[in-house]
Structure formats: structure tokens, C-alpha cells
Design goal:
The chain is α/β, with parallel strands linked by helices and 220 residues long. It is 34% helix and 14% strand. The chain contains 7 helices and 6 strands. It has a 4-stranded parallel beta sheet, with helices on both faces. Helix 1 links the parallel strand 1 and strand 2.
């Protein structure tokens, strides 16, 4: 899509650093330079104000990546694009069957009601919960990692969705500060809500997480 739009050497393309490096790599393959902008802390997608702040005279495009089953604010990003003459592209996630989305939403609602000591997803309208991502507050130490180890020790699988932001990877290292991106990379943890989970496993997940509340500071 970038090559078809004529993006190439000397151009800049604004992309998120919170996620995998493939989008930045695609920009580099055209000869253009990926420029990283910060994310919205609720959606984990590009923040439109941060995108606008990153625009220069060489910026030609923005790539918005939908994250964890939640959509980027495409309408506002298109407004930014119109003001600056930018192409706005989207990268989506593979869609789960509608029946599975319903199950995931039901389980996500249950977890959001029952979990304590972690910050559950907020503003979930339209969320398909490709991943159920919570935040484990830091409190001055790596509580997310300690929490993940303790939960796994109780037989509950979990994963860190973004271990290293792209602007901190050697290939794309930038001396910039993206506070929301870095905070999300330090705090986020994906908990299982897949279609093959039994109700008993869901209850065990809640019990395991809530038993570790002493590791954490209050969510707010």
C-alpha cells in the first residue's frame, strides 16, 4: 500500500512504537523513515494529538494499528491527515468469528467485575477482546513481571503483549520520550479468555489474580 501510494526515499511515515516492528519495517522497505508517535492510554492505539505533533514537512502518511480488538480513532486521524495532506492507512487484526466475540465479551465483562488490584480495560464500546489486557501498576518496582510469574506459578497462563517498544529496539532506536507507550510496555499483561476456557478455569484465573493483591498498589 505504501509503495502504491508513492511513498519512498526522503518521506516520513508516522507509526506506533507500541507493538511489533513489522509496520516500521514495512516503512523502511520503501526507503522512507518511520517516525514514532505516542499512544492513547485506553485504546493502546495512536493518539491523534501525538501524531499531529510528530508531523513535519516530510511526513506523507500515518499508519494506525488497531490493538487487542479495539479500534484506533480513525475519524480524528483522518482529520489530522486532511489538515496536513497525509495518507491515513490502517492495519487491523484478524477477526474472530462473531460467536467467539460474544463469548469473549461475556468473559471480559465477568473479569472486569471480579478482578481486584489490576486496572481492567476501560471504555470497552466496540471492543472485541482479541486479548484481555490489564495493567499492573509499577509502584517503583517491576510488579507486572512479578505478578505474571506468580500467576503462572498458580497454573494460569498469561503473557506480556509488548515487551520492548519499537523505538527501543536496536534497528529503530530513537532518543525520544513516548511516556504512554513506555508505561504501557511496563504495565500491560494479557490474561486468557479464549473460547476453550471452562467456567472453572475462569474462576481459577480470578482467584489466582486476586490472591496476589498484596503485590500491587491500588489501581487508581
Amino acid at each position: 500500500m505504501l509503495k502504491a501510494a508513492g511513498v519512498g526515499v526522503g518521506d516520513e511515515v508516522v507509526v506506533p512504537a507500541f507493538g511489533n516492528p513489522e509496520v516500521a519495517q514495512a516503512v523502511s522497505l520503501t526507503g522512507a523513515v518511520p517516525v514514532f508517535a505516542d499512544i492513547d492510554p485506553l485504546s493502546y492505539c495512536l493518539d491523534a494529538a501525538a501524531v499531529e505533533a510528530a508531523v513535519t514537512t516530510r511526513t506523507v502518511a500515518v499508519i494506525a494499528v488497531h490493538r487487542f480488538g479495539r479500534s484506533a480513532d480513525i475519524a480524528t486521524l483522518h482529520q489530522v491527515g486532511q489538515r496536513h495532506g497525509l495518507l491515513v492507512l490502517e492495519q487491523g487484526e484478524s477477526e474472530a468469528p462473531y460467536s467467539e466475540v460474544g463469548v469473549r465479551r461475556e468473559r471480559a465483562a465477568y473479569l472486569s467485575t471480579k478482578l481486584k488490584g489490576v486496572r481492567t480495560p476501560a471504555g470497552c464500546d466496540g471492543h472485541t477482546f482479541q486479548q484481555y489486557v490489564v495493567r499492573v501498576p509499577g509502584n517503583g518496582r517491576p510488579d507486572r513481571d512479578a505478578f505474571a510469574r506468580a500467576v503462572k506459578a498458580k497454573g494460569v497462563e498469561c503473557s506480556v503483549p509488548v515487551k520492548t517498544p519499537v523505538h527501543r529496539m536496536p534497528e529503530f532506536r530513537r532518543d525520544i520520550c513516548l511516556p504512554e507507550t513506555e508505561r504501557a510496555a511496563d504495565e500491560t499483561l494479557a490474561l486468557p479468555i479464549g473460547g476453550d476456557m471452562s467456567r472453572r478455569e475462569l474462576h481459577r484465573l480470578v482467584s489466582a489474580c486476586n490472591a496476589l493483591g498484596g503485590l500491587l498498589q491500588p489501581a487508581f
